[in-house]
Automatic annotation (TrEMBL):
Molecular function per GO: transferase activity
Domain Glycosyltransferase subfamily 4-like N-terminal: 16-161
SUPFAM superfamilies documented for this protein: UDP-Glycosyltransferase/glycogen phosphorylase
Protein name as it appears in the record: Glycosyl transferase
Domain Glycosyl transferase family, residue spans: 177-336
InterPro entries: Glyco_trans_1, Glyco_trans_4-like_N, Glycosyltransferase_grp1
Pfam families assigned: Glyco_transf_4 (PF13439), Glycos_transf_1 (PF00534)
Keywords, ordered alphabetically: Transferase
Length: 362
């Protein structure tokens, strides 16, 4: 079986990492992977060991030329399935290219934000199957009119060997980020975009720092709102209590050395950073949005807040920061939950089952 994967993202964020994991697992099952990715993208380099990579210009929804480029690739390679992994034009032009060339098309939907219902009715006709990475996204699409018979839920995965307790060293973390040995470290790893809830965290910080002044917040990531959020943190007088280390490629070392993970998102497909944190044995306080409740179980491995509820966020953070035993119990349970439900092997099996529905002879 040959699968053409189309990923239009330039950076190796959560969704693109899932594509790399999937290609690696499929290759081990004897599947031939072909990846179409943007020229100069991180995923093109990361996928080279598991797929034959074709790079091309991918200019988004307005890039009509992408349709022709993908059609020519499909025509020359004749894949059994075209699997579209992102938006940015690849969902539209990739879907049309597959349809026009007579190849089954699968779309992975990784976000839970609704689309205009009329647009959904047109666009989703292009796809033979739509894989949602959470039940939350499944429900959003079903409510918008996508037939349930076309939808399949295959949760995203985390490499539980790479992300595990014990890989991080607290002494290293302290030296790397200038923390004192008696300080607690809370992390957040997300793109700086409005729906991730950075401002909810900033609103909660005065109460948290009043109760737990020996706490430092490490907010990882990059994005269009980063400068604004940094300026707001500075204007609020948080000083060095809140650090902005940027995008890090070594989260597998950073996360296990933290005490707590926070993610007050207002919309979230699932949350790969949360899977990574839970796999590292971190308790989590997060927003009750999208697929997050499938990872964070209140009173079991973390706590949930209603989106935007900074008072509840502060309350849960203070309680967990004050109780090392509770943090340890939540962290251990979270690790067990992720290992049992969100393994790479399960994600690969789920995607492969969808392909076999469309190409049963293979």
């Amino acid at each position: 079986m040959k699968i053409l994967h189309v990923e239009a993202g330039m950076h190796l964020y959560g969704g693109a990492l899932q594509v790399v994991f999937l290609q690696r697992g499929l290759a081990a099952e004897g599947v031939e992977n072909l990846l179409a990715a943007p020229t100069g993208s991180a995923i093109a380099e990361a996928s080279a060991a598991h797929a034959r990579v074709v790079t091309m210009a991918m200019g988004g929804d307005a890039d009509l030329g992408m349709l022709g480029r993908l059609r020519r690739l499909i025509r020359s390679e004749r894949p059994d399935v075209v699997h579209l992994h992102s938006r940015r034009g690849s969902d539209l032009w990739g879907g049309l290219a597959g349809r026009l060339e007579g190849v089954p098309v699968v779309l992975s939907r990784r976000v839970d934000n609704p689309e205009p219902r009329a647009w959904v009715g047109l666009k989703y006709r292009l796809y033979d199957r739509v894989i949602t990475i959470s039940q939350g996204i499944f429900r959003v699409l079903e409510a918008e009119g996508v037939p349930a018979s076309k939808l399949r839920c295959v949760p995203s995965s985390v490499d539980v060997e790479m992300y595990r307790p014990g890989r991080g060293e607290r002494a290293w973390l302290d030296a790397e980020f200038g923390l004192a040995s008696d300080e607690l470290a809370v992390g957040m790893a997300a793109q700086f975009i409005a729906r991730k809830g950075h401002r909810t965290l900033l609103a909660a910080l005065p109460a948290v720092l009043a109760a737990q002044p020996r706490t430092r917040f490490l907010i990882f990531g990059q994005g269009p709102l980063r400068e604004a959020i940094e300026n707001e943190a500075r204007a609020a007088g948080f000083g060095d209590r809140v650090l902005f280390p940027g995008f890090r490629k070594d989260l597998a070392r950073v996360l296990p050395a933290l005490d707590l993970m926070v993610h007050p998102a207002e919309m979230e497909g699932l949350g790969v950073a949360l899977l990574q944190a839970a796999a590292c044995g971190l308790p989590i306080v997060a927003g009750r949005a999208g697929g997050i409740p499938e990872i964070v179980l209140p009173g079991v491995n973390g706590e949930l807040i209603e989106p935007g509820d900074h008072a509840a966020l502060a309350q849960h953070l203070v309680a967990l920061l004050a109780d090392a035993g509770l943090r340890a119990r939540y962290g251990a349970t979270g690790r067990e939950h992720v290992v049992s439900r969100f393994s790479v092997a399960a994600m690969v099996r789920g995607n492969l089952a969808v392909y076999r529905e469309l190409v049963p002879s293979r």
